[in-house]
Every structure is written in C-alpha cells, then in structure tokens.
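Task card 7
Instruction: Convert sequence to structure tokens.
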Amino acid sequence: MDKWFSVGELLDYINKNHHQFITLIRRSKSRIEEMEKIPADKFSAIAEKKGITCIKTNIRNYTDELRLIVIEEIIDNTKHYFGYFTNDYKKNKLSVISDYSKRWGIEFWFNEGDFIGLNSLPSIELNTVTTALALKMAAYYAVNNFRANLGNAFAAYNIESIFEKFFNKQALIILKKDVIEVTMFGHPYSDILNSIYQDLSNKLLKKNINPNIPWLNNYKLQINFK
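Output:
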C-alpha cells in the first residue's frame, strides 16, 4: 500500500485530520538525487556502514512541509538511500523508523489470520459474525500465548506451523471425577510441553486463576505425555 500512501492528496487529507503517518517513499530519480545531495556530516551512524538523518521536503498536492527521514547504507561498496515521509516532527528519527517496522508485524498477523479464517464470514447476521470473530480471536491469542511460552526457538513459527507441530495430534481423553485427562502418546515435543503443562492446576492457582474451565462444565484440565 505504500505506493498509494505516497499520493499527496491522501497524505494531505490525513494530516489535515490530525493523524500522523509514516510511509516509505518512492525511490524516483529526483528523490534519490535529493537524498544524495545531503552532506555526509549530516548523517549520524546507527550501525556499521549505515547512517540516518532528516530534512524538510515537499511533494505535489501536499500543502505543508514533510519530514523526510533518510537512511544511507553502504552495500557492496555502493551508497544506497532509503527515505520515509512523516508528519511527525516530535519523535526522534530512530523511533519513527522503528514504528514503521511494526507494519510488517501487522501484515504478518493478517497472513496468520487467514489460517483461522478471519477473512471468512460465516453469515450476514451481525451477531453471528461478531461471535465468530470473537471466538477466532480468542483462539488466535491462545495459540499466540502458547507460542510465546515455547521460547525463542519457535518465535518465528506462524500459527499454522504451531498447530501442525503441536496440536494436530491424536490424544486419549478421559473424564475422572472433576478432571479431564488428556494423554498424548509419543508426541515429538513432549519434553517441551511437559514442562509447560505439568501440574497445570497448581500453576494456575499460584497466578490467582481458577483452574476450573467454565466452557468445559467447570472441569479441571490435566495434560499428560507418555
């Protein structure tokens, strides 16, 4: 969508409605020449062979000045320039770039959402749609929290991969008094999962969380790996 965000009319509309924006610029010949003219001593080093600075600039159909944040990076002994437009003059340059990088996290989330069917509406009835979205979001965050508990080794795995590796397995389920026992045999990640789910009820109690699950008739859940 960046190519549309570079349209002056759109950015002007956003600015006049008191919203802030950050967008990657089009690397046109004239814009690259503008960045190349910035004196080298204006750049602050942020990494080896990489610097940052900012200037004021204009684009067509935008009624105010824009802040152009410029990254200069040496790649294969050649200087390359990348620029970002923003109307935020208060935030420091690195913070603006960091905010923009979150955009990829948003797109990653939408890609993950396809797996749990966020893009598929079950009905035209508002209540049905709302309920379905709420359940899908609850499922997403449950798996996302599970992924976080797995540690850095699985941080880059998407929801579908986590499902296939950890959840798409058969289990023996038995109700014993007020406990639902779920036993998984030969799970390839049993050592990781056992450390997470061992003594689950007591772990929840220590966090002041009721281990009785309302949507499972208030039964407790016990997960075993053999």
